[in-house]
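Record passed on underneath.
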Amino acid sequence: MKERKIYFICPSVSVPFGGIKQIYKYVNILNNHGYNAAVLLKKNKKKANIWYPFTKISYHYELIKNIENSSSSKNHKNSLYEKLKIFFHCFFSPQIEKDALFVFPEIYGKSFHKTIPNHQYVILNQNCYYTFQGYGYDYNEENPYLSKNCMGTIVASENAQKYFDLVFPSHNLYKARLGIDTEVFNFGNKKKRKIAFMPRKLSEDSLQIINIIKARKKLNDWEFFPIDNMDEKEVAQHLKESVFFLSFNHREGFGLPPIEAMSCGCFVIGYSGQGGKEYFKEEFSCLIEEGNIIDFVEKLEHYALEYSTNSDLFFEKGKIASQFVLENYSLENETKDWINIWEKIIS
């Protein structure tokens, strides 16, 4: 049964990031354990496998185009130009095997399964809060999770597991831990007065918090460092130098950045995004109610001023956080979970 082709439907981007990067990783995990998996893109992107250069990639313009159209509320009718593009790309698209198994991200809405009516599929739901994206208020049970062809859904957090236990209690649900590459993200013992954050996450909140703190002038000797447009090694280097990481998780299925920061020894302050509740431990982090700007500012100032008088305390908290990530969110645990899940699915 391992020979059965498994296609992971994936948006076509030049550089995989976030959940897309995870898809590339999962394909490699399966292939490294004897399965026959490939990322399926709409068209060739020359740098598509820059993160995982040995990932198997296939292309099928017409199928992915149909899937994208199915997620739109508009009625799509292909123009002559589009029909010519589909005709051209069909020469380079693989013949889909009759018993091929598809893996869909949750982002394609309520009708993607209708594009492959004769195939079984699995849903890789990396953010449960996107589950009803593309729906109106006219819910009906003709959705991909309840189709007879759906073999189950894979989620990545305890919170997502609770979400599906509530919404689809009889659904085949599997939970796989996410894994951090601790060869890259590991404890840094040379900390600076540096506070890292990701500006693309809830920028309206980060702008308020950082400007309020600058206006109050209590942390003038601290650097606020935006992590953006960097590769993993650059991100890790800055996290290893940072004492604090500000989390702006927002309705996340899990939320990797805070875990990566913890692995590098940062004391994380901020929002869990729901999915991050399982790793926001009070021994080495500070959870803030989402949107509570005042509390966020006060807590950050408090801990930064405390660092000035007792830096060793935060050094120890950072080591505990890093060890917690190593024990719970290692690549080994992630691989183990994925192989156990797919043995159940394929069998």
